[in-house]
Amino acid sequence: MRSTLLTLLTGAACCAFSAIGFAQQTVALSDTKTASEVPGATESAVAEDTKRTSRKGGKPEAKPYVSPYYSYDDDTDGIPNGRDKCPNTPKGEKVTPFGCPYDTDFDGLYDYEDKCVKEPGPKENFGCPWGDKDNDGVKDNIDKCPDTPGPLRYAGCPAPKKKDTDGDQVFDDEDVCPEIPGIIANRGCPEIKAEEKAALKKAFDNLLFETGKDVIKKSSYAALNELADVMNKNTRTNLHLEGHTDDVGEEDANLLLSQNRAAAVKNYLMSRGIDDYRITTDGHGESRPVAANEDDKGRSLNRRVEMIIKYD
Prior knowledge:
Layout (H helix, E strand, L loop, with lengths): L1 H30 L11 H13 L138 H13 L14 H13 L3 E8 L6 H21 L7 E5 L12 H7 L1 E8 L1
Parallel strand pairs: 1-2
Antiparallel strand pairs: 1-3
Helix pairs in contact: 3-4, 4-5
């Protein structure tokens, strides 16, 4: 009886394992599809899919995700949008590994928009350096007579003939008051009062700017305030300001700096109540040194804003 029962159990177990095996075989067969069973698929695609399925134990192999941002290349320069710093580069232009066109002369203009690829120049001149047509040493962008040689002092125009209209032994090109006789010490203007002379000297001696800028240092304010007080007391007193620099840097930059520094002094005095029409300004850059630019002391003397009082 016991032997018969054991035999029956063993037979049932064998049948169960056979059923499981048959089921696995059926699943495997159902996973192996033909191209005719998958709409729109090719035989090779179905075969590859079957291989992936078998390698993963019946689960399809996951493909790595690639963002479309790193797949697209809008300007077709070979650099995907994801790392293209210049995605709108004109077609056909050579680009760097970052997707931007080359700038051979490093002047801020790409080669395809630069008319002087190997020479740096400003954008205003299409990437070319400013020329000097009349070879007078004054660049064409600041030369008021670009076809006629002349010194920087006269903005590239020929120097005027020397004349002294008021006969005070100060030539008109140096005379701040060319039609009123004056003294050489006051640049051709009449001699000024002692109080005004003292205020001028103090303002001149204490006037300081931040290096390379037209910003007046605060330590200069007190002396400028005293000059403004003197001018407010005497409404006939007018002031002429002339900016000058040393020879460090480009001539055109120094000319502009000298003009801006004179204007900065004017603006400060106007803030203290002096009317605009009472102050005139000019700038001569490095063209009128009062000392040699060979050492710090000489260059320091040449960086100045001259102040000349005149009467209306």
